[in-house]
Amino acid sequence: MKIERLSQDKIRIFLTYDDLLERGIQKDDMWREIPKVHELFSEMMDQAYTELGFDASGGPLAVEVFALPAQGMVVIVTRGKVAAGSEDHILEEDDDSEEDIYEMEVTMEQSDVVMYAFRDFEDVIDVCKKLKSASLTEDGRLYSYNGKYILALEPANMETSRHNAVIAVLAEFGEATSVTYAMLEEYGKVIVASGAIQEICTHFSG
């Protein structure tokens, strides 16, 4: 579980699917009101307070959950006013000494885009060559974001075995990123808008 502060009143938490499995939570459970999810949220808020001094108690929270297909989940928590007319969830944590009540507006978003980050352009070239030579895919979009290169692939039309092979190659050269596709679209710089793997292999074939 990685937690980072985005602003005074906003944090981003990145949960891998291993983080969820360790707690006996399936991906689809995040959409449901169950005790395990309440416990996970309390754990996240405790860690946010310990690491960043982010105090989530005593006020409404807007919680956005983004499910990423290969990497895990991104949870963005914002302190402040819950939007009018939104659905509020009250989470209660049972504790002998005190009782924390979180008033939350929860929104969920799921993305099918697989995204991996690469520190060096050489790694991007290597991963593209390997994906193309293994006839896995020639598609993809390449972005520059926050000092890294991010390759985004939409595996919607791929069969599961090929999809898993693509992720294995991406993981060999890069790392799963906690950036959501919406953030990438808004703040990232597009380097290759489509057919990125083919493009890069064509220009860097040596």
UniProtKB/TrEMBL annotation:
Superkingdom of origin organism: Bacteria
Protein name as annotated: Genetic competence negative regulator
Entries under InterPro entries matching the protein: MecA_C_sf (IPR038471), Neg-reg_MecA (IPR008681)
Homology family: Belongs to the MecA family.
